[in-house]
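Table S7 (text form). Paired inputs.
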Amino acid sequence: MDRRTFVTTGIAAGTALALGKSPLAFTTRKPDEIRVAVVGIRSRGWAHVQGLNRLEGVRVVALCDVDQGILENRQRELAEKGTETQIFRDFRDVLARDDIDVVSIATPNHWHAMQTVWACAAGKDVYVEKPVSHNVREGRLMVEAAKRHGRIVQSGTQSRSSSAIREAIAWMHEGHIGKPLLARGLCYKPRTSIGKVDGPRDIPKGVDYDLWTGPAPMKPLRRRQLHYDWHWDFDTGNGDLGNQGIHQMDLCRWAMGYDRMPDRVIGYGGRFGYDDDGNTPNTLVSILDYPEAPIIFEVRGLPSNLSAQKKNWGGSMDRYLGMSIGAAVHCEEGTLLMPNYSSAHVKDRAGNTIKQWRGAQDHFQNFIDAVRSRDASGLRGSIEDGHLSSALCHLGNISYLRGETVSPKQAASKITWPTTSAADVERVVGHLRANGVDFASSGIVAGKLLEIDKDSESFIGDADANVMLFRPGRAEYVFPDEA
């Protein structure tokens, strides 16, 4: 069975075993040991390796990455500490082994869903980084694959393992500060220019670019840096809304108790302050309309003003209620604030802190506990939750991509709800003007107002927007027919 057959038919039928396997050169498996392969080990995946190896009865036995150099270096680092690993460049070779129980995925966003679906069909449990998907339909396919094959799949939204946040949200749900009126997510994170090239760049030595590209469109590399800066290319990333912002979006949706898509979405913003090879917005406001109360999410990559760009970009981000990255739930009698992954506090209407919580648990341990028990209900970051929160980020981006460039005044006239909209537009415009943005020449993108069918997780009456909900893949990197 060749790789194309494996991808398009074999994995869909759960027949990865047909590939044949030979024993890995590992020491004897200890009783009840869980063997893990970590995929994508340059940055976040290296944290997976370290975090999982710390857990009792868990051993990272395989590393997978398209970069031969990073593979060999990481293997050597572990060997120096007495940890033996095998290395693989192609994820499908990992799935062909029956002596690997779990895969932990920290590849670029465009690979998350396909690797998860393949892994579930191959009988592996999966820990997958956020956002779990690159587009909306992918996320639902992940949920279906986990259920169909009886696999444990955890989303890397680690705030879900914070006892402080769990207790704070439960306390709010008890009604102590009244009805929620608005949830606001914040991602004010410094993002400087990634530079601009004048033509295609050479692929870094040792990188299999076809494997790196996978299901994304095959295009020449047109940015200085292959790694990390893929976040700012819509072919492979989702901008900061789907990078840092997914954590805070998940907090907003969790606190509001929403287990579905919104009724409609609109976003506005742009890529301001520099001309580079990125195409995702560094400034974006997404409004997700639920009948109970909206979620408004704000991304700002520029600092507080033009002077800060020159002197202290990273240390001069705007703040909202004391937070640059966080989530705030405004209720009738106070506001729940979640400024990080392990704490929360509540302020009354006068601004006084009336209650606070601290503490968090190990998200990897929660996943491993569920793997051992085979009880997915114990997961604190279920794939269903990961899908829905990721999808909210995708919706904001799609509205933006379906928008048009207009003046700030025209943008304000298009966004008349919720009641905070006029003030929100004014705040964003003021922030951009402080950073030297000339709207006479640049304008601002006013996204398209899109109505959503919650049952089908699709847009109503907009075929072009619906096309953006799914990308089946290319060549041998396609979703299985069953998926």
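Next pair, protein 2 of 2.
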Amino acid sequence: MPKAYLVSAYNAINDPDKLKAYAELAGPAVTSFGGKFLARGANLACYEGKEKLRAVVIEFESMDRAKECHESDAYKEALANLEGGAVDRDLFIIEGAE
């Protein structure tokens, strides 16, 4: 079974405090579903598309497990703290290659 990756790319952040509050809850929610942070931060190079301010890549054991995490009450609580904090963010889950 291939692994899955949750990818989040921030194009704009209007409230860093809300992003911090979100991250404080999202981290434990992610790890409770077996998620492993592979990359996160603002040191990135953008070659195509919109310039990104921040990006995060999280590995999960499967697509189902990544979706369970995203739909969990714990992650939804984290998202509620982010409301209005990320003006423009792309968030998706992609299945890894075998």
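The chain has one domain: 4-95.
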